[in-house]
DNA sequence: GTATACCACGTACTATACTACTTGGTTTTA
DNA sequence: TAAAACCAAGTAGTATAGTACGTGGTATAC
């Protein structure tokens, strides 16, 4: 890959051009070289970094966490254990969220099942529950 | 309950005083009567409304959805079926979220299990996966 | 009567992750 | 060469749900 400008990079990475500038502002992407006229100049390395960011997001990592992952990605002392730890911590978070959602689901199901379809709202268990 | 000011209402409802003003601004709470000096004056009805809002939030409803619930709460033509519909829709949303979270969890577990703890990052499946 | 607590409003900020727009310079295309 | 496409920066806005602060007026307690 030859050097490319930000619009081409955005297209290759499948993200919004403005997002790349945003990522640079929040230090998720390094400041790239520039042309004489001030255009940003990117390479394959930058494209790979954006793919890394995107894949990490799909695994539920926040931008803050991804910044950490990106550091571990280049740090010479990083072991597989470091990465594993981050994955395991994220798994715990996901488990908690699932647990909370199941609570909500259970409560909603209970209320919905107590509903008499055509009953007036004055006898609706959902309303009664929300007003207690 | 006699008429009370916003600070007392906030305390009774267990929410932040500023949040009540925020809810008024976004039309989640009606504009209350005022004293001569401009103080807001609230009653039991307002406290009940805030409790309704809070309980609805705990069931996963957004403020926007809660606004709708509050409308159904007072509309004369509302049936229990209307409320049931909203609950069922929220259940579907929750199910979708759980499904997405389980996907993430599965992917993370797979990656974490392939890790050789003390292995160098150059052989780490987590990194390899995130870079693809 | 005075100090303290309460209230009002408007503006701005927090968290998270973007996205859009204006103005003006540069590069590419026909 | 001119038009179209691209780029830059900075500001502001979106979504969602709040929270904090400064300035100044009012009510309560001692």
Descriptive report:
2 copies of one chain form a homodimer. Chain A is mainly α and 132 residues long. Chain A has 2 domains: 1-78, Multidrug-efflux Transporter Regulator, Chain: A, Domain 2 (Orthogonal Bundle); 85-132. In chain A, 64% of the residues lie in helices and 3% in strands. Chain A contains 6 helices and 2 strands. The first copy, chain A, has helices at residues 6-13, 17-25, 44-58, 63-74, 80-113, 125-130, and strands spanning 33-34, 40-41. In chain A, strands 1-2 form a two-stranded antiparallel sheet. The longest helix of chain A is centred in the last third of the chain and has 34 residues, at 80-113. At the A-B interface, helix 3, helix 4, helix 5 and helix 6 of A face helix 3, helix 4, helix 5 and helix 6 of B. Chain A binds a DNA duplex (30 and 30 nucleotides) through residues 5-7, 16-19, 21-22, 26, 35, 37-40, 57, 62-64.
User: Oligomer, anyone?
Assistant: homodimer
User: CATH fold name of the largest domain in chain A, please?
Assistant: Multidrug-efflux Transporter Regulator, Chain: A, Domain 2
What would CATH call the architecture of the largest domain in chain A? Orthogonal Bundle
The count of β-strands of chain A is 2
CATH first level of the largest domain in chain A = Mainly Alpha
Biggest interface between chains: A-B, 50 and 51 residues
**What is the ordering of alpha helices and beta strands of chain A?**
HHEEHHHH
Briefly note the structural class of the backbone of chain A: mainly alpha
The major beta sheet of chain A can be summarized as: 2 strands, antiparallel
Order of the strands making up the biggest sheet of chain A: 1-2
Percent in helix of chain A: 55-70%
Radius of gyration of chain A: 24 Å
Unreliable residue runs of chain A: none
Number of helices of chain A: 6
Distance between the termini of chain A: 64 Å
Count structural domains of chain A. 2
Percent strand of chain A: under 5%
Shape of chain A: elongated
């Amino acid at each position: 890959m030859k050097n490319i400008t930000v619009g081409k990079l955005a297209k290759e990475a499948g993200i919004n051009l403005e997002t790349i500038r945003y990522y640079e502002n929040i230090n998720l992407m390094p400041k790239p070289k520039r042309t004489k006229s001030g255009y940003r100049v990117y390479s394959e390395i930058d494209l790979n970094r954006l793919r890394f960011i995107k894949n990490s997001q799909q695994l539920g990592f926040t931008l803050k966490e991804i910044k950490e992952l990106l550091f571990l990605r280049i740090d010479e002392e990083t072991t597989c254990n470091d990465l594993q730890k981050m994955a395991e911590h994220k798994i715990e978070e996901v488990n908690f969220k699932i647990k909370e959602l199941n609570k909500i689901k259970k409560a909603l199901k209970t209320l919905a099942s107590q509903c008499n379809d055509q009953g007036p709202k004055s006898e609706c268990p959902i309303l009664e529950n929300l007003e207690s």
